[in-house]
Amino acid sequence: MKNLSLDYTSIQSLPEIWAIAASKFGNTIALDDPHAQPEVKITYQELSVKINQFAAGLQALGVQPFAKVALFADNSPRWFIADQGIMMAGAANVVRSANAEQQELLYILEHSDSSALVVENLKTLNKLGSSVADLPIELIVLLSDETPQSELSIQIVNFEQLMETGKNHSLQPVQQTKENLATLIYTSGTTGKPKGAMLSHGNLLHQVNNLTSIIKADVGDRVLSILPSWHAYERSAEYFLFAQGCTLYYTNLRSLKSDLQKYQPHYMVAVPRLWESIYEGVQKQFREQPPSKQKLINYFFEIAEEYIEARRIAEGMSLEHLNLSVGARLLAKTKASLLLPLYNLGDRIVFKKVRQAVGSNVKTLVNGGGSLAKHLDDFYEIVKIPLLVGYGLTETSPVTNARTLKHNFRGTAGKPIPETEIKIVDPQTRQTLPQGQQGLVLIRGPQVMQGYYKNPEATAKAIDPEGWFDSGDLGWVTPDNDLILTGRAKDTIVLSNGENIEPQPIEDACVRSPYIDQIMLVGQDQRALGALIVPNLDALQQWATNQKLNLNLPAPNTSLAEISQSDLYSKPVQNLFRQELNSQVQNRPGYRADDRIGTFRLILEPFSQENGTMTQTLKIKRPVVQQRYQQLIDSMFADK
User: Fold this and answer.
1) Domain-by-domain residue ranges, the chain?
2) In terms of CB atoms within 10 Å, which of 9, 237, 380, 629 comes out highest?
3) Regarding beta strands 529-535 and 68-72, do their DSSP bridges make them parallel or antiparallel, or are they unpaired?
């Protein structure tokens, strides 16, 4: 169904969306949770009613306008009802995953001055423990249907009880403006205590009104949701897509493959690690093919890589060839024309099957939450899956830049979205740098947060008097104003010779190797870089079989002591990883001698949220990993 005439530019707060959406989209399904027991389906009309009931229930139980209500829960229709119900009641919510550590949740609960608490279930409440009694919490709501029970002398109701209360009370409208606080999102970050980014209704409505520059959604379009709903990236995407009348299906890592087939989504937003896992799944299937078929697949991918590079050059969309002459572009266009028939043949024989595995109805996939490695950008372009890249931070609500289907400039984060400015400055002097020169990325626009809650020093450090927000990212812009990100300022590794190394691009190149699942560079103040590598044991076993080697490979999550006794440290395996590192790093555009990885160690515990080494958007917490493996890292460089 084509989209109806929609205009949200005159509204002042997010909850105003739902009455408009209910009148426009009525019986269209808004939320579908197929993994709930039983499956939950909620129409736009029902969603608006439920949000109002939740809000009225909160008001009836004492939640005051402009109060703060903590919401510690994860993806579900009830999360969304709670999120918007809290705002509809006139309060601001304070969001975090129910799976976050106890001390972090208690810190957020206390620091945010929350007067009410909404939790996923009794398990989450019990995790918080008796410390809640020492805080000014006057009401606790369970999003489950469990019987409220606790030793706390605080009023506790479950979801059904709250909704029943809401049915019997009239909602008292609270007049809000775009300047009012909508939510506090505490950045988990990779270092230090979390800071509460204050996002206003105006910040979030900027995204609702301007993400149409990236995605043209129609009523009833299907969206697959896998990221945490409370996170700024997924959250703004959901608000926007609901405002267009889309249907959102909840999925998870375990069900993603089957859900892609079952629901054939039009849209999905995710982080680089997820696109990497889909890519690796395809590569695994290729590795399991007979040698003759593998040879054919590799041949078509080699042709395709030549073809897309020639096409990019011809269209002026190749980062490595920005200033070519008309003649050089014409030559590239001729080369692309000659390669096109072979590329089309490869599409019919190989690439089409990859598209079918991801879902044949994809209109747009969007990557955010981190840079997309070159080999992934190339892969999705080759197989004709429209993958865009957006950029932003929690503090910018979050989207500031994005590629579009008409201007999908690979290797970039795209142009600024409407009403947004980007400036590149010298990290030390803060002087604006000439176009094309790398520096610190500053951002200004209506989506920039109001500041960090109760932290004026951090706010002043992040946002200057002219409204420019310091992203902490390094990058440069093309003559056409596309942003290229090169790393995090705080992640920079300084070698003993004074050379500054940005680890992310080198790591992105290394994970192109089928034998490297994850990698983190180290080497601060050392003569050369080092690396901690989580190997892909399946690919390694396949390699050993092909080499007719009988290797004693350890099981996943084996201890470091046991790893050292296994064949992972045998000469053939060590030589393989040395060759892979050298090859991937040296073949990277812009390679310098200092980029070479001098020493490495293999570890078998993957970086993950569960073990505290990754953020919710699956970025490696470098200081945490450094601390955990400090002895191993020291031994790496002691051997040199």
Assistant:
1) 16-201, 273-360+362-489, 492-638
2) 237
3) unpaired
The hierarchical CATH code for the domain 492-638 is: 3.30.300.30
pTM (2 decimals)?
A: 0.86
Q: How far is CA 391 from CA 146, 231, 402, in A?
A: 40, 14, 6
Instruction: Convert the pLDDT of each residue in 272-306 to its tens digit.
Output: 889 999 999 999 999 999 999 999 999 999 999 99
Q: How far apart, in Å, are the Cα atoms of 183 and each of 90, 200, 235, 277, 395? A: 11, 7, 11, 32, 11
The pLDDT > 70 percentage for the chain reads 97
Question: How many whole angstroms separate alpha carbon 264 and alpha carbon 383?
Answer: 17
Pairing status of strand 500-501 against strand 493-494: antiparallel
The better pLDDT of the pair 426, 150 is held by 426
Nearest in space to 450 (alpha carbons), one of 440, 460, 436: 460
The DSSP result for 599-637, as a single string, is: EEEE--S---TTTTSB-TT--B-HHHHHHHTHHHHHHHH
Given CATH 3.30.750.24, say whether it is the number of domain 273-360+362-489. no
Token duo for residue 441: 């990325």
Tell me: pLDDT of 494 over 90: no
Render 88-103 in DSSP notation, one character per residue.
HTT-EEEEE-TTS-HH
Q: Cis peptide before 398, with omega less than 30 degrees from 0?
A: yes
Give per-residue burial for 565-588: e unless 16+ CB within 10 Å, then b: ebbbeeeebeebbeebbeebbeeb
Q: Give pLDDT tens digits for 394-410.
A: 999 999 999 999 999 99
Rounded to 5 degrees, what are φ and ψ at 526? -100, 170
Domains 16-201 and 492-638 are alike in CATH topology? no
Q: Give me the architecture of the 16-201 domain, per CATH.
A: 3-Layer(aba) Sandwich (3.40)
Q: Show Cβ contacts of residue 355 under 8 Å, excluding neighbours closer than 6 positions.
A: 362, 383, 384, 385
